[in-house]
């Protein structure tokens, strides 16, 4: 076909370093390579977030989109975004002996934010 470049078949050459490995060794090598690829992605996910990601987490925790927005805004305003807004709500709930939904609704009302800041910026996680 016109426009296609024939690729030299170098499979035998590229597989030489794998030829003497057993099935178990091949499996181990495969999973080691997968980890090399996935670990940086997990690190990025752990260290980076966005308001839309945090709203999505809150939706999965049972909050409506109208409730999620002020929670995210409150966390952004107080520099708590990097801890995860769902995590903030959870920690407040645990600290105040509330269910997660009640803690979130009370944060929306303006309660507990000072405590949340102390929990996260005071070194406790």
UniProtKB/TrEMBL annotation:
Any one Gene Ontology molecular-function term assigned to this protein's record: D-ornithine 4,5-aminomutase activity
Keyword tags: Isomerase
Alphabetical list of InterPro entries matching this protein: Cbl-dep_enz_cat, Lys-AminoMut_A
EC number(s) reported in the record: 5.4.3.5
Pfam families found in the cross-reference section: OAM_alpha (PF16552)
Enzyme class: isomerase
Entry superkingdom: Bacteria
Record keyword Nucleotide-binding present: no
Gene3D superfamilies: 6.10.250.2220, Ornithine 4,5 aminomutase S component, alpha subunit-like (1.10.8.1000)
Ranges of residues in domain D-Lysine 5,6-aminomutase alpha subunit: 6-120
Protein name: D-ornithine 4,5-aminomutase subunit alpha
Species in which this protein is naturally found: Fusibacter tunisiensis
Lineage of source species: Bacteria, Bacillati, Bacillota, Clostridia, Eubacteriales
């Amino acid at each position: 076909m016109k426009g296609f470049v024939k690729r030299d078949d170098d499979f035998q050459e590229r597989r030489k370093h794998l030829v003497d490995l057993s099935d178990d060794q091949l499996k181990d090598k495969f999973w080691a390579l997968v980890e090399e690829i996935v670990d940086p992605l997990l690190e990025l996910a752990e260290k980076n977030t966005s308001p839309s990601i945090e709203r999505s987490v809150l939706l999965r925790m049972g909050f409506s989109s109208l409730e999620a927005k002020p929670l995210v805004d409150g966390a952004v305003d107080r520099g708590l975004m990097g801890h995860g807004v769902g995590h903030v709500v959870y920690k407040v709930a645990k600290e105040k002996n509330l269910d997660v939904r009640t803690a979130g609704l009370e944060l929306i009302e303006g309660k507990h934010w000072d405590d949340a800041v102390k929990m996260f910026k005071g070194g406790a996680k």
